[in-house]
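User: Sequence for Histidine--tRNA ligase below. Tokens please.
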Amino acid sequence: MSTEGPLRPLARNPRGFADKRGRDLSAERRIVRQVSEVYERWGFEPLETPAFEYADALGKFLPDADRPNEGVFALQDDAGSDEPGDWMALRYDHTAPLARFAAQSWETLPKPFRRYAYGPVWRNEKPGPGRFREFWQCDADTVGSDRPEADAEIIAMACQGLQAAGLAPGQAQIRVSNRKLFDGLFDAGGVTEAGQRLTALRAIDKFDRLGWDGVVQLLGEGRLDESGDYTRGANLPATVKGAVEAFLASANTPGLTRAQTLDAVARSGDLGAAGEAALNELAAIDRALNAMSVDPAAVTFDPTIVRGLEYYTGAVFEAELLLETADDKGRPVRFGSIGGGGRYDDLVARFTGQSVPATGFSFGVSRLASALRAAGRGDADAVRGPVVVIVFSEDDMAHYLSAVAELRAAGIAAELYLGRAGMKAQMKYADRRGAPAAVILGGDEIAAGQVTIKDLDAGRAAAAGIADNEAWKAERPGQVVLPRAELVSAIRRIIE
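Assistant: Structure tokens for Histidine--tRNA ligase:
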């Protein structure tokens, strides 16, 4: 007979999914709140869509019709019947659900329709440092305008949003290009197959990380990375690879203005009609940004920006973090992109058959919060704990409950210690909770109509300057005895 107990599951997180406590949640909520205020000031209304969408509505490339979970988390909707239903998938961004909503509600919407959204998204991809399978995004989009000024407004608003989130001028930069530049280049080189073009664009999107040596492998047969993973290449003709290299080198000169970059790109070679249209659109965006007095250093034109998603059709933008960041051991960490977006004029047409122009920007809330923490900016999001009421005796429980209720009624976060530890452990608990103060109602205080309040913030500060433990005990820094009626006013002074 076996003496072994039941098998216990191993307590662990699924890879790419993180637990978040007070400080992390506070950072993300602050970013969402402050950026949402910017979006609403620019005239965008909030919209919330479901976490699940039907897989075909998401528009993700799904190679396996029997189980379409490539890149997404999918399940089959049985709809309460015996027949297998359609596949549903957790949204991988907020843009595809917006396109579905716009197509579904177009007749009733003001046009152009301006909306912002925030919330978690899920991607079934390989996780890594700072790269999660579940993370928060915050988007703003304009649906129904084909004007380049709509792109410029999204870009300018993104600059303000990033500053509202906590980045000072110079700590982030938005780089802008246009997918039609590469459409023209591919047209001139005879590359017409859509999948081959998309593979090439995804390769070019890695230019910052891999450099030309890595990109040229992905434009050719493929690339084996350091982890042993092999990525199939675009197999472009040698002449087209040469044209791409010349194009990327044309404007890869630091210090060029947006107008100078456009001139350099125009001189790089034959970009065809699509490329000429792209240059005209970028010039219009430049004029609009200048009219809105957007800092030239905050927004640059960079032809290496293409964005990896296939639904972009025109202008594309990417926000790069310039803030210096480090890991827990002080080693430099490069976060790179913290957001991006662009024009997607064909996404709504997937549902309606009619082209509806649209443009938008999204940034990773979770990623930006991690970056600010890695830059030593996490203290701003430290969570203030509640005032802790210490428990001494079961017989005096009514006094403790009365005190904690009085504090809460005054709008002060407070908790009654409900463990079974002694005084010393309770004070350590209050300190770990980040409590601003501890309330002590021992038998002597209750009998005298008094209360002892320990200002934990003042105590921490004073203790840092007292080397001798006996002196610390004698001085009792931050501790006062007051009439019981002054409890609320005394706590409020400490907090404020």
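Residues 151 and 359 are 6 Å apart (CA to CA).
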